[in-house]
Amino acid sequence: LTQVLPYPHFGGAKIRAYYMLRQLAQMHQVTLVSFVREDDRPAYVEHLQQFCAAVHTVPMQRSRWRDGLALLQSVWQGAPAVICRDWIGEMHALLRRLVGETAFDVVHADQTSMAAYALSAADAAEKAGGPEGRPRTLLDQHNAMHLLLARQAENETGVAKALYRREAALFRRYEAALCRRFDRVLTVTEEDKAAHLALFTGRERAEIAEKMASIPICVDAEGESPLAYKDEGAHIIHLGTMFWPPNVEGVMWFAEEVLPLVLAEVPEAQFTIAGKNPPAQVKALAAPGSPVAGHVQVTGFVADPNPLLRRSRVFIVPVRAGGGMRVKILDGWRWGIPMVSTTVGAEGIAVRNGIGREANIVLADDAPAFAEAVVRLLVDEALGDTLRSNGREWVRAHYDWRTAYRQVDGLYGALASLATGSSPKEV
Questions:
Q1: In what order do the strands lie in the sheet with 296-300?
Q2: Range 103-116 burial, b when 16+ CB lie within 10 A, else e
Q3: For the chain, does the N or the C end have fewer beta carbons within 10 angstroms?
Q4: What is the pTM of this model?
Q5: Which of 204, 2, 216, 214 has the alpha carbon at shortest distance from 113?
């Protein structure tokens, strides 16, 4: 069950789901059920049908009216607002029908937003009384949402700060309940796993730890060649969905506090912000009258970002709030682009930080240090070449899905043992 259609696989959520699906389809008959948006095309579904036993889709319903209703439901029910917002009756009905028609062995929820659907489907299957009984359940937590929201609250003020704090508190309770109810829980980082376990104490914490595992997001490191770099000047790029609050906050911090320091050293520097649905405050960075006007380009969604990436001397990840993994770092390594990131931005990823011969990224957390790292890569061609080469080799060795996602087969074996009564070693 996926909250976004996992193809084309742009962005961390889709990349995680797509290659997880590819791995599972090698050993199992997989039915994919996914929400779709207006820009999802029939060809995308056809691509996924190549390796799925079946693909079913439900239109995602979003509106300001639904957002307002979700806030009221959140107050009334004590549930996170985003969970209330994305509870769609049509999805619930589809899942009830499917579990009535097929005896599924496992219901696999991709992302926290699909967890309630997975549990509801398993309950419906158990109530139907099929020969296999209740399906086993697995939740793939892309983020520790309570941690992500608490960090975002630290960078907000006023009403926004209060709302983020409230949502973080609701998610602490909600995610703890999910950990109790699911048979297996995946996280993408050890940090997120620890954050979930911190919600429990004593014996219960040990019991939850037994059914949790951490498997990183992976990419197709072997399947694509690095981009051919084409030097067109001092170009800096940020690529990521621009409706995601941590990305917006990070880009604004870079443009307002870091970029002026970079321009003082490299006056010709250009900063490109590429990603879907940039808000007004981001667009305003490129407007006349902006302190950095003439040095910022805001593209919105770009179907083929390769020309922008090929010319970039630096790929920045200025994230200061968040959880999970920033797959853009894996992509940057795969493409062969030197990167500067905050420590939070690189959280959950094994890196070699610095400017030495074995370094693959530069980490910096305050504006002067971040600017210094960006300037160094804009002017030091040899350092850029070192990071390009080292990053490419690192992602091939540690973050290729064909190797890392084999661990998922063991998790499914453990789920089978719960159903058959045999031990995991016998499966």
A1: 296-300, 270-274, 235-239, 314-317, 339-341, 362-363
A2: ebebbbbbbbbbbb
A3: C
A4: 0.81
A5: 2
Token pair for 346: 């690189």
Q: Extract the tokens encoding 85.
A: 């917002």
Query: Which residue in 332, 342, 327 sits closest to 387, CA to CA?
Result: 332
Which one, of 359, 349, 419, 353, lies nearest residue 393 by Cα? 359
Would you state the structure tokens that stand for residue 111, as one six-digit string? 């992302």
Is 353 in a helix, a strand, or coil? strand
CB 416 within 8 A of CB 257: no
| Residue 64 CB burial class (10 angstroms; 0-12, 13-18, ≥19) | exposed
The counts of H helices and E strands in the chain are: 19, 12
Distance CA 299, CA 282 (A): 11
Angle at 250 between CA 69 and CA 82, to 5 degrees: 15
Question: What's the CA gap between 163 and 380, in Å, rounded?
Answer: 44
Phi/psi at 32 (5° precision): -95, 130
H-helix or E-strand spanning residue 341: strand 339-341
Altogether, the residues listed in the chain come to a count of 427
Model pLDDT for residues 192-250, shown as the tens digit of each residue:
999 999 999 999 999 999 999 999 999 998 777 778 888 889 999 999 889 888 899 99
The two three-digit tokens of residue 406, written as one number: 């084999």
Q: List, in sequence order, every residue forming a beta bridge with 33; answer none if it has no partner.
A: 56
Name the DSSP class of 183: S
Query: For residues 376 and 356, what is the distance between their CA atoms, to the nearest angstrom?
Result: 13
Sign of the alpha-carbon dihedral angle for 344, 20, 86, 74 = negative
Which residues, at least 6 apart from 225, have a Cβ–Cβ distance to it below 8 Å?
A: none
Q: How far is CA 407 from CA 24, 115, 217, 413, in A?
A: 11, 21, 12, 10
Query: Which tokens hold the place of 121?
Result: 């489907």
Q: For 329-388, how does the pLDDT look when each residue is reduced to its tens digit (9 = 90+)?
A: 998 998 899 999 999 999 889 999 988 889 999 999 999 999 999 999 999 999 999 999
* Tokens standing for residue 304: 């083929």
Distance CA 190, CA 197 (A): 10
Cα-to-chain-centroid distance, residue 313:
25
